[in-house]
Amino acid sequence: MTERIINAERIEQIINVFGSFDENIKRIEQTYGVRITNRGTELKVTGEEEAADRGARAIEGLLTLAAKGETIDEQKVRYLIDLVSSGNDDQIGQMAKDVVCITAKGKPIKAKTLGQQRYMKAIQKNTITIGVGPAGTGKTYLAVAAAVAAFREKTVNRIILTRPAVEAGERLGFLPGDLQNKVDPYLRPLYDALYDMLGAETYQKYLERGNIEVAPLAYMRGRTLDDSFIILDEAQNTTREQMKMFLTRLGFGSKIVITGDVTQIDLPADKTSGLKDAVRILENIPDIAICRLTASDVVRHALVQQIIAAYERGGEKHPTPPVKKLKRERK
């Protein structure tokens, strides 16, 4: 007899998979001649080796659907059993393709605009995706949702989130604590997105196991990142050299998503934004997608769209003056 262990993230997913009076689990047991038991968020499938493997794959497929907010009914169980039996269970994700991810509170995450939809399709299709657009277009949030979905589907082993710790008018030195304490505020939007998707407890568990890493961009130097979903946020604040360093971290089985807003560059005036440079250089390379989101893709308060449009009009009337280089006086 062979045993297969499957772990779910939340007990609600187990309840959904079992169904009323455990009817979904009973159908899988009858089909494959296995015994399925659970303890908390852990499921154990016991039976002959091939039967246990198929039963485990069927349960993992149901958990994938449950994680995407799908209600598990008899039709879905039958369809899933057919997919497993024909060896096509890798297509299970297509059954809930409209939902990117489900948050810890059960909220489905979906693209809300055509621009966001193109952005999500580009992430799924390409190894590297660059999302450029104004604040409120969901660039970072949707990228984190895609990363969590890929992690849940086990297409990657790690989620790595990073951003440059560039001062936006303030100075790092005034913040209390050590270096990690000083850069944490810059990483807070990434923490918040992960908390929303996974819940604080699950996030902490994966962080301790090393499945999730949130770090400043400087920590990426010298590494090769395999089987990872890597997100570079606020990429407009990278230099050309930093962007090249980051892109060359790409390893086998990994995906990279780069997000940024070229209208909010906090670099010194004499520095070229690595994001602007990358968009220009990488435009026509296969397997690299560049998605341009606009004010029409903003999903925050309606005033945000008007504010963005007003600043764009103001920027056209008052272009940034060229930087003059000061000559050193000879002594």
Task: Set out the fold topology.
Blueprint: E1 2-7, H1 11-18, H2 23-32, E2 35-39, E3 42-47, H3 49-67, H4 74-85, E4 101-102, E5 108-109, H5 114-125, E6 128-132, H6 139-152, E7 158-163, H7 179-198, H8 200-209, E8 212-216, E9 228-232, H9 240-247, E10 255-260, H10 274-281, E11 288-292, H11 302-317
Tally the beta strands: 11
Query: pLDDT below 50 for ≥5 consecutive residues: which ranges?
Result: 167-172
- Reading the helices and strands in chain order gives EHHEEHHEEHEHEHHEEHEHEH
Q: What integer is the average pLDDT?
A: 83
Largest sheet: 6 strands, parallel
Distance between the ends: 88 Å
| Shape field | elongated
Strand content: 15-25%
Radius of gyration: 23 Å
What structural class do you assign from the helix and strand content? Answer: alpha/beta
Helix content: 40-55%
Biggest sheet: strand arrangement: 8-7-9-10-6-11
> What is the subunit arrangement here?
single chain
Give me the number of helical elements. Answer: 11
Q: Would you write up a description of this structure?
A:
This protein is α/β, with parallel strands linked by helices and 331 residues long. It has 11 helices and 11 strands. The strands form 3 sheets. Strands 8-7-9-10-6-11 form a 6-stranded parallel β-sheet. Strands 1-3-2 form a 3-stranded antiparallel β-sheet. The chain has a two-stranded antiparallel sheet with strand order 4-5. α2 (23-32) runs antiparallel to α3 and α7 crosses α8 (200-209). The longest helix has 20 residues, at 179-198. The chain is elongated, with a radius of gyration of 23 Å. Residues 167-172 have low confidence and may be disordered.
